[in-house]
Each structure stands twice: as C-alpha cells, then as structure tokens.
Amino acid sequence: MGQALNIALLPGDGIGPEVTDVAEAVLNLLIQRYQLPLGYTRFDWPSHAWHQAHGEMMPGDGVAQLREFDAMLLGALGDPGPLEDPSRFVLSDSVSLAPLLALRKQLDLWACERPARWLPGAPQYLADPRAREVDMLVIRENSEGEYSGQGGRLAPGTAQEVATQVEVFTARATERLIRHAFQRARQRAAQRETPRQFKNGKHAQVCLITKRNAQPFWGDLYTDTFQRIANEFPDVDTHHELVDAACMKFVQCPWRFDVVVASNLHGDILTDLAAVLCGGPGLAPSANLNPDEPTLPALFEPVHGSAPDIAGQNLADPRATLMSLAMLLENLAHHHPAIGSAAQHLHDLIQADLAREANGDPFSGTRETGQRLCQWLAA
Ligand code: NAD
Ligand code: IPM
Ligand code: MN
Fold it and tell me: What is the mean pLDDT of residues 193-211?
C-alpha cells in the first residue's frame, strides 16, 4: 500500500458544517471498514466565523496549504443564517465566496462536473414519467468567462455610476473544456449497461449551450471549437441550444440530454435547474477538477449554498454532500482498489436510503439521515 492520502474537509458556513458532520462520520466508518489508506484534516476556514475572528475568510497562505492535500470536500460558503437573526455576522457574497472562486481559479480546476441523475425515491417535480430517465452530466467551464473578475465601478453611488463586468473567453480554455465534454460523453456511453439512442444510431451526445444570438463573440468561438472537435468524435451526436431555450427544454424534455457543456455562468444557472429535476438541492453533487493535472487536489462540493433559511434547524439534506464524497472517493480510486469499493458502497447506501422515501418515508432530518446511514455502514 502506498502512502496515505489526505483529504481536506472544509465545512464552511450555514448548513455547511451540518452536512459535513454527516460526511465526516460516514468517511470515518468507510476508512475503518475498508482499511482505506486515507486520512483527513478538518479546517475551520474558510468561513464567516474565521472572518469574524481574523478579519479574513482564510489565512493568506490558505490556497497554498490546501494544495498539499489529495482532495477537498467543501460544505458551503455564504450567509450563515439564521435569517431571523438581524444581529448575525453578515459579509457581502463577494467576500464570503471569494475563497471558493480562488480555489477553483488558483488551482486551475477548470472543469466543473455536475451529474444530474434522477434516482428512485427522489422527489419528482415533473409529472411526465419520462422524468425518471433524467441522466445528464453538465460540464461547466470553471476558470474564466463571466467569472473573470475584471471590471469595476466608476463613480460608485452616484447617478452617473457605470459598472463594467468583463467576460473573457480564451481559445485554450474553450478547447480543453469542449474536448473534455466529448471524452466524457464517449466514456459514459462505454460504461452504460443499456445503450442510449441519439441521432444516427449514436449512443452518446454532447449539447453545447451558448447565447450566440446576442453574444456572438464568445458564442462563435465556442461554436467553431465545438464543430472542429466534434469531427474527432464521429461516434458522438452533437446538438446546440441557446441557453434560454435550454431552460425550457430542461423542463419539457430533460431526458433527451446526455452531456451538456456550458460557460461558467450558464452552467451555474442550468445546474440549479438540473438539481431540481433530480429531487432538489439536497441531492445534487459536484466536482471541480483539472483533468490534465491529476496531482492537483480536486474540490468536491454540493451544488447548493449555505441555505441560511434552514441553517441550524436539522433540515438540510446531507446527501448532496455524501454524493460529492462518493465522487471524491471515485476520483482517488486509482490509488487503491479499496477506495473504489468504498465509493460504490456509499453510492449504494444513498440509493437505498432514497428508496425508503419511495415507500412513503419522508426526509427525516440531517442528523437522523446520517445516523441511519452510519448504522447501515457499521452493520
Ligand atoms: P442555497 O443553495 O443556499 O439555497 C437555495 C434554497 O435551497 C434554499 O431555500 C435552501 O433552504 C434550499 N437548500 C439548499 N441546500 C439544501 C439542502 N442540503 N437540503 C435542503 N434544502 C436545501 O442558495 P441561496 O439561498 O441562493 O444562497 C445562500 C448563500 O449561499 C449565498 O451567500 C450564496 O452566495 C451561497 N452559495 C454558496 C455556494 C457554495 O458554497 N458552493 C453555492 C451556492 C450559493
Ligand atoms: C455554485 C455557486 C457559486 C458559483 C457561487 C457561490 C459563487 O453558485 O458553485 O454553483 O456561482 O459558482
Ligand atoms: Mn450555483
């Protein structure tokens, strides 16, 4: 067995620590049961609480410290709640979320993978029975675009104020993103037991999202790159949707999508919608990765935020975080086969837990869900 791998647990704010507590308990049991060559360190930064005490969300060398880990699991950052408490410590989102964007950008975790698969027992908000077939992977650009952070406010607070927010799209980032989307589509088709059918007898599809009718500069860069790379993947069906129409079709016929590739902001918005197609924010995991640099620690996190409206009430569903932990373990599985077995076990447990709800048992609370899964694991 090689050297132990180290995971950084970053609970963050609001419901973040509540769902991370569950993930930590499950991780401990998996480490014991599978004798995993894994250890972890739980950090009290980045967080509002750390900011309150130290005047910053994390130490100046925070990213450098985290770079030394093999993977990171983040709960959530943002308003800690409870919303009814007007005296709570509140920071602007641009301050509290800066560490998340810094980690993505400074570690060059340029691909954000957000799988959206409806699992039996999950709430089904669409009446059409085909909504149970939803199984897509949204790949979001994670390093530039609308999140480039360039711009400013001129004459702030005056009637003459001008705000600019510059979007930056580079050929390099576009190329690697779209190529990754085609590779993942091909890989998913190869792993599927029952093939899916797309146009011309193909078993995989990539749908490109743009707003090229109104934003032609980056829209055309994406389109040209997409068409060029598609030629290298004749086995993968291709498709394009304008982002507004994509929102409609995510609701009308989401079962038609396979891999969806989108810019940073479009991917952000579409993945909250995709989360609801699969049962809601408590069931949507994500991974921030650099597929070219597997030695960089990938960052796993639920799609949801700090949920200040329910923080501290034992109402947060911890399963999006557990699904993110399963993705983290899968990502480290090449180091040791037992890590892959633990990931599969965790997937199976989450599915079994959801299946209970198909039998009419309602969501039973953050801690109770954690306790039940831990009992099953310890059995
Ligand atoms: P949110 O995702 O925190 O909450 C949206 C809605 O979903 C709320 O009604 C909330 O109660 C519900 N919800 C979220 N997670 C849930 C869970 N696990 N179980 C049950 N219900 C859940 O989004 P918001 O309210 O727009 O943002 C709150 C804060 O979180 C903001 O500061 C925002 O910037 C931040 N945020 C952080 C992240 C992150 O850390 N990755 C992601 C999104 C938003
Ligand atoms: C997400 C979040 C973040 C994003 C925010 C909190 C900056 O919404 O991870 O989906 O927009 O990327
Ligand atoms: Mn989001």
Answer: 98
Beta-strand ranges (E) seen in 142-235 are 145-154, 162-168, 204-210
Residue nearest to atom 11 of ligand 2 (CA): 268
Assess whether pLDDT exceeds 90 at residue 359: no
Adjacent-strand bridge partners of 209:
241
Q: Sign of dihedral through CA atoms 190, 194, 200, 206?
A: negative
Is the C-alpha dihedral spanning 219, 245, 230, 295 positive or negative? positive
pLDDT at 279 over 80: yes
Largest separation between any pair of C-alpha atoms in the chain: 66
pLDDT, position 3: 72
Helix (H, G, I), strand (E, B) or coil at 142: coil
Q: What residues are neighbours of ligand 3 (ion), with CB under 5 Å?
A: 268
The reported pTM is 0.98
Residue 281: its H or E element: none
Residue 330 and residue 324 in contact, taking contact as beta carbons nearer than 8 Å: no
Q: Is the per-residue pLDDT at 2 higher than 60?
A: no
Instruction: Check pLDDT > 60 for residue 265.
Output: yes
SS3 content of the chain, % helix, strand, coil (to 5): 45, 20, 35
Query: What residues flank ligand 1, with Cβ below 6 Å?
Result: 15, 76-79, 93, 97, 100, 281-282, 301, 304-310, 316-317, 320
**Both ends of the chain: CA-CA distance in Å?**
26
